[in-house]
Amino acid sequence: MGGGKLWAKEKSRVSSPDPDAVRATFTSVAPRYDLANHLLSGGIDVLWRQKLVNLARQGAHQDILDLATGSGDVAFALRHGLAKDVRITGADFCEPMLARARKKRDKQALPVEGNQFVVGDCLNLEFEDESFDLITIAFGLRNLADRGLGLSEMRRVLKPSGRIIVLEFSQPYFWFRPFYYLYLKGVLPWLARWVTGDRDAYLYLGSSISEFPDRAGLVKELEDAGFSSVECKAYTFSIVALHLGFKKS
Question: I need a surface site. Which of 105, 137, 160, 238 has the fewest CB within 10 A?
Fold first, then answer.
């Protein structure tokens, strides 16, 4: 795997992902990314995405942006769970992952119009202000080199009173942490090497999760970025959490 160090230190600040290395990581695992997700999560990733779709259904949307869309699983879950006339745009900065999303779209015979997959950087979104009713991002926020800037960009392209839904790994309940981190850092990388041939990519997964804020911490980051009425809910012993926020009018 190329890309150099996945984490960049800046003085005494918390380490942040290096964008080039993150892109190289996902390029490396793209061919078997979906299989790895399903196997390494025990298939529960499908349930987590369904929780996101259920939350999305609670609002009226015409234009949705799914960021860090990867191979498109969240975009497709939204497509099949929402009204047919909803326009869904998936954006990611890793072209090999987008190629897999487009291939899945074509296999499902979905029209390109209303189901687009485009190259996009969360830190510099090439969309007009107030373009979307809903933004979703699943398991991608922790990969941003500057979460504050990324959240600010998301707020910019949301319409007034638009919503953001974040599905992300979180900090597990205290009693479950020893078991979880034993699996995450001791077992999962070796299983990933068997499935994808890339152990380092999933060593990065463990590091990125351990340095990510807990539920309350992410609520504060969303509020600091200008989102209001932020709420969250934990799933699977708080391995993951759904956060919902509204753009202040």
Answer: 160
* Alpha-carbon span 7 to 145, nearest angstrom: 9
H/E element holding 166? strand 158-169
Alpha helix segments (H runs only) across 8-72: 19-29, 33-40, 45-56
- Compute the distance between CA of residue 110 and CA of residue 114 in angstroms, rounded to an integer: 9
Per-residue pLDDT of the chain (249 residues), as tens digits, is 233 334 333 333 335 788 887 787 676 666 666 766 666 677 899 999 999 999 999 998 999 999 999 999 999 999 999 999 999 999 999 999 999 999 999 999 999 999 999 999 999 999 999 999 999 999 999 999 999 999 999 999 999 999 999 999 999 999 999 998 888 777 777 776 666 665 565 666 677 788 899 999 999 999 999 999 999 999 999 999 999 999 987
Query: CB-based contacts of 236: which residues, under 8 Å, 6+ apart?
Result: 44, 48
Q: Give the number of other Cβ atoms within 10 Å of residue 95's Cβ.
A: 13
Would you say 139 and 208 are in contact if contact means Cβ atoms under 8 Å apart?
A: no
**Beta-bridge mates of residue 67:** 91, 137
Which residues make Cβ contacts (< 8 Å) with residue 107, sequence separation at least 6? none
Distance from C-alpha of 13 to C-alpha of 204, rounded to nearest angstrom: 19
Does this model's pTM top 0.90? My answer is no
CB atoms within 10 A of CB 226: 16
Strand partners, 87: 63
